[in-house]
Specification:
The chain is mostly helical and 56 residues long. Helices cover 71% and strands 0% of the residues. The relative contact order is 0.16.
């Protein structure tokens, strides 16, 4: 997340995580915070891979 949003990333993660219990939904919500479409899609791809590995 910091790669895409810098130092504000930690705050955004805490803010979004406080209201969600589903990790996949958290990833989607955080992706919406990334303004550049190509970076947003890259984040989604990488984060969804991590989520998939955690579910195994």
């Amino acid at each position: 997340m910091t790669t895409y949003l810098g130092p504000v990333a930690g705050l955004l993660v805490k803010r979004h995580a406080a209201t969600l219990t589903d990790l996949a939904k958290l990833v989607e919500d955080l992706a919406r915070e990334i303004p550049a479409k190509d970076e947003r899609l890259q984040f989604l791809s990488r984060a969804q891979q991590v989520v998939a590995r955690r579910r195994r």
